C-alpha cells in the first residue's frame, strides 16, 4: 500500500475514536414518539453512516422490529429510554447477525430486564456494555494497524506498482474480513449454545410439570375412591 492508503487508514482510525455513541446519559428520561426516536438516533449515530443519505433508523424498521419480537411494543405510541437501549443494540447487531440470532440473544434480555424492577436494570446493563466497548477502541486501532503492516509486507516481489498496491490493499481487506468472519462464527456458536441450553431447560421444566400433574391426579383419584 502507498503512503496515501496508510494516511487514509490512520485518518479512519482517528475517526473511529471520535465516533458518536449513544452514551447512557444522552438518552432522554421522557418517553418519545416514533418521529422523535428516529431523529434522536440519527443525530447520535450520524458519524457511522457510510453514505450521507443512509438512514440510521426509519419508522418501518421500528415497526418491523416490534413485529419480529425484537423490540417491545410502545406504550400509547411512546417509546421509553429502555426502547432506545434495545434499538441501539439492534442497530449494531443487525450488521453482522441474522434477525433470528438477534431474537435469541435479545429476547432473554427484554424478558428479564425490560421495564422491570430487576437488579441490574437495563440502564445499568447498557452502561456496563458501553464502558466495556470503550476500552476496546485502542486495542482495535492497534490491531488494524498491525494488519495493515502485515498486508504492506505482502506481494513485494510484484514489479508493477499499481498491481502491487492493489494486491496489498486486497490483502488488508482479506485479513480484516477473515477477522470479522471468525468472530461472527464464534458469536453464532455462542448464541446457538445458549439457545440449546435454554430449550433443554424448558423441556425439563415441562417434563417436571407433567410429572407433578400426574402425581396430583393420582392423589385426587385415591381420595375419590375412598
TrEMBL record:
Region of interest: Disordered: 199-226
Highest taxon listed in the record's lineage: Bacteria
Feature: compositional bias, Basic and acidic residues: 206-226
PANTHER family: DUF1836 DOMAIN-CONTAINING PROTEIN, HYPOTHETICAL CYTOSOLIC PROTEIN
Full protein name: DUF1836 domain-containing protein
Amino acid at each position: 500500500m502507498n503512503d496515501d492508503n496508510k494516511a487514509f487508514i490512520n485518518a479512519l482510525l482517528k475517526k473511529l475514536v471520535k465516533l458518536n455513541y449513544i452514551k447512557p446519559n444522552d438518552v432522554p428520561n421522557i418517553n418519545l414518539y416514533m418521529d422523535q426516536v428516529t431523529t434522536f438516533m440519527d443525530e447520535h449515530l450520524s458519524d457511522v453512516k457510510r453514505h450521507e443519505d443512509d438512514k440510521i433508523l426509519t419508522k418501518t424498521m421500528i415497526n418491523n422490529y416490534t413485529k419480529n419480537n425484537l423490540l417491545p411494543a410502545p406504550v400509547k405510541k411512546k417509546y421509553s429510554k429502555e426502547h432506545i437501549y434495545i434499538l441501539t443494540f439492534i442497530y449494531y447487531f443487525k450488521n453482522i447477525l441474522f434477525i433470528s440470532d438477534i431474537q435469541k440473544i435479545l429476547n432473554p434480555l427484554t424478558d428479564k430486564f425490560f421495564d422491570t424492577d430487576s437488579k441490574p436494570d437495563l440502564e445499568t446493563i447498557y452502561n456496563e456494555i458501553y464502558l466495556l466497548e470503550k476500552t476496546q477502541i485502542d486495542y482495535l486501532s492497534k490491531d488494524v494497524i498491525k494488519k495493515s503492516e502485515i498486508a504492506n509486507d505482502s506481494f513485494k516481489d510484484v514489479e508493477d506498482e499499481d498491481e502491487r498496491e492493489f494486491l496489498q490493499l486486497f490483502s488488508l481487506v482479506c485479513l480484516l474480513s477473515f477477522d470479522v468472519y471468525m468472530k461472527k462464527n464464534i458469536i453464532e456458536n455462542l448464541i446457538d449454545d445458549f439457545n440449546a441450553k435454554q430449550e433443554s431447560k424448558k423441556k425439563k421444566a415441562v417434563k417436571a410439570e407433567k410429572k407433578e400433574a400426574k402425581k396430583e391426579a393420582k392423589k385426587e383419584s385415591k381420595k375419590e375412591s375412598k
